[in-house]
Amino acid sequence: MQQSPRAGREGDVLAVVSQSGPTVSFFDAASDRHLGAVQVPAEPHELCFDPTQRLLWCTTAYHSGYYHANSGRRTELTAIDPDTRRVVEIIDLAPEHGPHGLALDTARRRLYVSVEGSADRPGGVVVIDTESRRPLGRIDLGAPGPHWFAIDPEGRTGYATNKEAPFVSAVDLERGTLTKIEVPGSEGLAVSADGTHVFVASPYAGFSAGAAEKRPATGIRVIDTRTASVVDTLATENIVMPVHLTSTGKLLVGEVRMEPDPASELGRHTPGRLGVYSAGTRERLGELEVGHFPLTITSSPDGRLAYVSCVVSSTVDIVDLETLRSLARLDIAKAGEAGAHGLAYIPRPV
Question: InterPro entries from the entry (predicted)?
């Protein structure tokens, strides 16, 4: 008999950002029971769990709103103890602002935080010592608005997607040298387990009136890291925001779906779609309907379960990746929160 996808997850926890909370909520990974929430500075966006320090990192990007439609950029990075569910420290990155993307190098004890640019400096990535929780330096990324950030398995190269800029920034994390890889604007990304390819959601998901008509073909640009060039495109029907790679080599992409609405120039959100591919063969394995506007995807360490947070419906879909079946939907708004965004899977303490 096949083991239940929830078996053996007792004590594991799923952390979920509520942008409008502003909170990080915690759920039992075996039962989906709501365990509590931690208040954080407005407006939280992404999460990253550090198993070495056993800390949960949370970026706070804006006072309210979102990229290109906000009331001002914030400067805080919050360190949370996920076991006691309390804030350990709030690190002020000023004068850096708009922190968003997070990538962790446990071997070197470094956390990389993407930050937006200003009039006199391009956007970049701030390097944090995870032991002292203090900045070690900053690396320029050559674009005004780097958003998502990922590193290769060896921790040598970082990749930043740039919404409007027509390139992905590839940066040597020791020397700071920058290579620009041409793509027509970009959103989420993921680096393959062997570091040879980067999967990038492209183009930029502008939702202004008429944006869809001007938009290049939507999909996942596959970048060969050895040649720093796009070698393939996995076409999608809709614009893609989040991209995630599981430990078992499945590529997960979140498609945002909209339909015309006479009452709004932007249109009306309809249920999003989780697309599942083989990262090795690039074959599309299947798809599943999820909540409105998927914005973040993560997975369990064994690669069996996917978690898809959807900001407009404020839900998190839990998906069995072996059967491509929906197991549950967490209603973040029901817990008194709204705007589900960042996710982190936290294994129980050993």
Answer: Host-pathogen_enzymatic-act, N2O_reductase_N, WD40/YVTN_repeat-like_dom_sf
